[in-house]
Write a structure and sequence with these properties.
By secondary structure, the chain is mainly alpha-helical. Helix content is about 80%, strand content about 0%. Helix 1 crosses helix 6, helix 5 packs antiparallel against helix 9 and helix 7 packs across helix 8.
């Protein structure tokens, strides 16, 4: 009789192989979708590319839609893994922000096919109320809001609504990856990140001009 521990090891080995195969399918599918688009990318072409049967793909993903959305989800999982790895062990909050922005921009710069996936999802699946990117952003943004809350409490960031801070920075870097994709990346990632951080952290106004602008805004709001 087979020992219980041996059965468990075999089951774990099988599960790992299944997960590895799933990741391989998603990796190859991402490249195929990016090259040919959702409509023209064929499951058979993916099977041929990987040297496997179509049945293997369908065991993991019942439809091409399921395959595409899982591939888009993988992109966002990989992004989060990269960011968490690059901020791990960093105590300074502002340095975490800096590394997070750099990692985000570098991730999509090194993998333009991932930007293409985000574009195609918006074009092909208009029935989805919230695209994959924003599903993940809504979950992961909580970490950054907690970070900004601590930075405000420590007197290192002005007392602004943390939702406003994360929304503005998130929209800024999100828009940047599409500008880079469509218009070409005019600057290296680190220089681009430095420009963004300089504007976000320091602003463009001198301190006296900043005070005047904020005072004028307060007056305008009171008048309206």
């Amino acid at each position: 009789m087979e020992h219980l521990g041996e059965k468990k090891r075999k089951r774990c080995s099988t599960d790992e192989e299944m997960l590895e195969r799933r990741e391989q399918i998603l990796l190859e599918a991402t490249e195929l979708f990016a090259e040919h688009g959702f409509s023209d990318a064929l499951t058979q072409a993916l099977a041929d590319r990987m040297g496997i049967g179509k049945g293997t793909i369908y065991r993991h993903f019942p439809s091409k839609r399921d395959l595409f959305l899982a591939a888009a989800d993988r992109v966002m999982r990989k992004l989060q893994e990269k960011i968490l790895a690059n901020i791990a062990g960093v105590e300074d909050g502002l340095e975490q922000v800096s590394r997070g922005i750099r990692t985000f921009l570098r991730f999509f710069s090194e993998h333009p096919e991932y930007v293409e996936m985000l574009i195609q999802e918006r074009a092909q699946f208009k029935d989805r109320t919230r695209p994959t990117y924003f599903e993940h952003r809504e979950v992961n943004v909580q970490r950054w809001r907690q970070l900004y809350t601590r930075l405000i409490a420590d007197g290192r960031v002005r007392p602004l609504a943390v939702e406003t801070i994360t929304d503005v920075i998130g929209n800024l870097i999100y828009g940047t990856i599409f500008t880079n994709y469509f218009a070409g990346q005019a600057k290296p990632v680190d220089q681009q990140a430095d420009d963004i951080l300089r504007i976000v952290f320091c602003g463009i106004l001198t301190l006296p001009e900043s005070d005047r602008w904020l005072s004028a805004r307060s007056t305008d709001r009171a008048a309206s």
